[in-house]
Each structure stands twice: as structure tokens, then as C-alpha cells.
Amino acid sequence: MPVSIIILAAGAGSRMRSSLPKVLHKICGQAMLSYSVTEALKISDDIHIVLFFHHQKIREYIQNIHQNDLNKITFHLQNHSKYPGTGGALMQGDDQKCLPVKHDNILILNGDMPLITKESLEGFLTARSSIALGVFELTNPHGYGRVIIKDDKVSQIIEEKDASPAIKALKTINAGVYVFEKKFLQTYLPKLKDTNAQKEYYLTDLIDLATKNHIDVPPIFVNPKHFMGVNSKLELSKAQDVMLERLRDQAMEQGVIMHAPQTIYLETGVSFAGECEIEPGVCLYGQTKIINSHIKAHSVIEDSTIEDSHIGPMAHIRPKCNISQSHIGNFVELKASKLSGVKAGHLSYLGDCEIGAGSNVGAGVITCNYDGKAKHKTIIGKNVFIGSDSQLVAPLKIASNVLIGSGTTMTKDAKEGDLVISRVRQENKSWGFYKFFTPDQADKK
Ligand code: UD1
Ligand code: CA
Questions:
Q1: Rounded CA separation 277/209 (Å)
Q2: Quick check: 305 and 285 in contact, CB under 8 A?
Q3: Whether residue 155 is found in the same domain as residue 278
Q4: Pick from 160, 193, 221: which residue ends a domain?
């Protein structure tokens, strides 16, 4: 059945207590609204997003993320000052008419339900009659609209702010997912009134209008782990926990070993291939790709590709790194660097560099890539041995087969076969210890 989808994202989101629009708050690295759009696009070619507060910012974000599907997405500006509320969001122009959509059946989604999936939406749609409402039960239903069910039919939804104590005690709540026929909305939207505690046009009052006009509305029980709403930062973290569990479960089913998985953070764009092992406390951000690699405890990897390598413990791989066949040890920080067949075992900063196979980076080596104005590159060939505690002042080129003595501050390029060393010659002064600390007795020694 072809269906048009309307996603409501015009609310102020004041319970979020944030200057960032609610639907742009992220879970696992992606804005909440973008999850809804992604899943909606899997089942419909006609997606409508209703915006008002911060509409420009939200529109730009969605246009950027979903740029290949913009022909299926229409943005609408709610006439919020005249028709506030979730019902008002469906109205177009000045006369409470329904938004123009392509298909006769309309799926309506609150924009703050980031956990929906194609499968959960399809499950809801197959269960539907001409009007349907998603509901679930909660032991603590605070904040949600309570659903009154009589003879297996929904008779009314009462919002928290309009509810008496007896109604508040009801545990069945409105999930925020609905199906309507277009002709129903055309007839009944203009009949919505704003006579309630919030002086808003409630979408939920359409259910009341349906029952009063002898149209049955079956309650469709849906999974709260897919349809929970996010109004506050507390709920945001709860939704993220559900998403994290999904991402970790998917990875493990795909063959990734995870130790203490509940301590591992990963984002929606992260991917794994081959045999991977991830230790406790690891954080994987952005579009990171892990291929046949072992990431040891408490390492952080951002927007990078790691192949056939060991990383960590406690390594920090910042964006745009490409690491293959390498060993990166503890307290090594990398940024925008390409390492292939390299060992960097301890305490280094390697930024904006390329290092070739067989090279060894000693403890404490630093690429000085920033001169206070601009970033510069360090290019290092194959089989280069960089002694501990050396500083490589960029821009710098080091050819293959070069030996760099410990403590060298390199400011000039090195050619193949060079031994590079720059340090003050050591001097040992006899009895200097005693002369310094006990000068009175020094001559007795
Ligand atoms: C809404 C429902 C409530 C349900 C809950 C589920 C109404 C009146 N109440 O309450 O019954 O239990 O969702 O999570 O619908 N929005 C607009 N324009 C507006 C106001 C809101 O587009 O003028 C959008 C918001 O951006 C949001 C969605 O509609 O994505 C829901 O609005 P919200 O204020 O979060 O409604 P709830 O109070 O959670
Ligand atoms: Ca909500």
C-alpha cells in the first residue's frame, strides 16, 4: 500500500532546555530527525517534514544528510502563530486544510521518535484499519497522552496537562504514530479546536472526532523500544542506550568480539569488516571503519580507517587517519596521518604525516606540525628508525632507510641512508655532585 509520511518537527522542544533544536540533538552521532527520515524513506516516496522553530537550520541539516533523496522530501512551514500544536502542524495556510500529500493513506510520525525502524513501521501499517493509533503501556506514563480504550477501541486521548488524577493513573499511552486517510483529515482537521490547557490544536483530538462520528479506531500495541518519545536530555540518553545496544548487537552478530560491550560506545556510521576485537571502554566515532583489527581498552577513534592493526590501549586516533598493518601503542595521538606497516608503541603525537612500511617511531616522538599559523606535513619513507624523544619540525621530508638519533630536533630534510643526530655533546664533570651539594667537603673526596 503506497503511503505518504508526515513527520512533525515544528515544536519548540522547550523541555530539552537547549539552544539547539530538539530534533537536531544527536543519538549515536546522528540527529534524531535524520533517523526518522532514513526509515521513512525505506517505505515511502513521499515524505513531508513540518518545521517552524529553527526551520532553516533543521532544513539545512536534512538537505545535507539526505541529499540523494531530496526529490522525495517536501518541507512545510507550520502557521504556528495561528495554529500551534501537533494538529496545527498538519494544517496548511489560513483555513485549517490538510497539507497536500501524494497518497490516500498518511502515516504521521512525531519527529522525536528516533528509534523507529522500517520493520516497526511496516508492522504498524499492516495492522491498520482506515485510522489507527500506536499505543504502549508504561509503569511511569508521565508526560504522555493517556489513551482511553473501550471495547477494544480508542475513544479518547487526554494530554497530561488536561488530565484529572484518575486519567493520569492510566498506563496506556499514545506513542505518537498514526495512520489516517487523506479524506478523513480533509473533513476533520478544520473541526479541531484549541480549547485545552495549552491552547493548541491537538492532533490527538482527531481520535475523539472519529469516535463521535462512529469511525472505529483500534489501538495498535507497539514496542516502546521503537516508539519512545524524546523530550528531555534524560530521555535522549535513554534513547541512545537503546540505539547503542542495537549497534553493538549488530556488530557482534556480524562476528565482532566485544569485551564488556555495555562499556563500548559506537556511532551509527561505524562499520566493521573481517575479524575484529574491541576491548572495554573503546569509543568509535563518525564514519570509522575497523577491518581485521584489535582495538585495545579505552582507545578513541574518530572518522578513521584501521586495517590489520593493533591500536591502544588508550590511543587517540583523530579524524582522517588511515592505518594499516601497524601497531599503535598507549598514549599515541594521531591526526590526519597515513601509516602503513609502522610501529609507534608509546607516547607520541603524529599529525599530518605519512610514514612508510618498516618504520619505527620511538617513545615520545612528536611531529611539530603547527607553526602557530599553518599546519605542515611530515613525509617519512620506509625503514626509518626514529629515536625516542625526537621532534620532527614540519614541513619535513625524510627519505627511506634513515636513522635518527634519540632526542634529535629535525628541521632539515634527510636523504636516503642518512644518520641524523642533533644534540649537545655529553660532558661528565668529576665530583660535580659533591661540589654542588656539599662544597665544604668536596675537596675531601
Ligand atoms: C505528543 C502527543 C501525546 C503523545 C506523545 C508521544 C499531542 C497533542 N500529544 O505529546 O499524546 O503521548 O506525543 O511522544 O500530539 N510539533 C509540531 N508542531 C507543534 C507542536 C509539536 O510539529 O506546534 C511536533 C514536535 O516537534 C514533536 C511532535 O510534534 O516532534 C510532538 O510534539 P511534542 O511537543 O513533543 O508532544 P508531546 O507533548 O510529547
Ligand atoms: Ca514528544
A1: 56
A2: no
A3: no
A4: 221
**Angle separating helix axes 32-43 and 55-65, nearest 10 degrees:** 50
If one counts every other C-beta atom within 10 angstroms of the C-beta of residue 310, the result is 17
Q: How far out from the chain centre does Cα 30 lie?
A: 3
Do 237 and 215 fall within a single domain? Answer: no
Distance CA 339, CA 188 (A): 64
Q: Do 273 and 145 belong together in one domain?
A: no
Closest CA to 16 of 32, 29, 30: 32
Does the annotation count 259 as an active-site position?
no
Q: Are residues 271 and 140 in the same domain?
A: no
How far, in Å, from the CA of 227 to the mean position of ligand 2? 11
Q: Ligand 1 pocket, 8 CB below 6 A?
A: yes
Q: CA 78, 157, 1 angle in degrees (round to 5)?
A: 65
Per the structure, the count of domains in the chain is: 2
Spatial CA neighbour of 318 closest among 301, 305, 330, 306? 301
Strands 47-51 and 73-77: parallel
Q: How far is the CA of 115 from the centre of ligand 2 (A)?
A: 13
Instruction: Identify the CATH number of the domain in which residue 383 sits.
Output: 2.160.10.10
Q: Name the pTM for this structure.
A: 0.94
- List the domain range (segments joined by +) for residue 377: 233-420
The verdict on the CB of residue 229 being under 6 Å from ligand 1 is: yes
Is residue 148 domain-shared with residue 287, that is, in the same domain? Answer: no
The predicted-structure confidence for 352-394, as pLDDT tens digits, reads as follows: 999 999 999 999 999 999 999 999 999 999 999 999 999 999 9
Determine whether 203 is exposed, middle or buried from the number of CB atoms within 10 Å of its CB (0-12, 13-18, 19+): buried
* CATH number for the domain that contains residue 45: 3.90.550.10
- CB distance 419 to 401 below 8 Å: no
Beta strands 105-110 and 172-181 are: antiparallel
Annotated active-site residue in 66, 310, 327, 346? 346
> Which amino acid is it at 407?
G
**How far, in Å, is the centroid of ligand 1 from the Cα of 217?**
20
Q: Are 326 and 341 in contact (CB under 8 A)?
A: yes
Whether the CB of 135 sits within 6 Å of ligand 1: no
CA distance 80 to 85: 8
How confident is the model at residue 442, as a pLDDT?
72
pLDDT in tens, 103-144: 999 999 999 999 999 999 999 998 767 899 999 999 999 999
- CB 141 less than 6 A from any atom of ligand 1: no
**CA dist list (Å): 206 to 78, 162, 194, 217:** 18, 16, 12, 10
8 A C-beta contact, residue 5 and residue 104 = no
Last residue of a domain, one of 167, 198, 221: 221
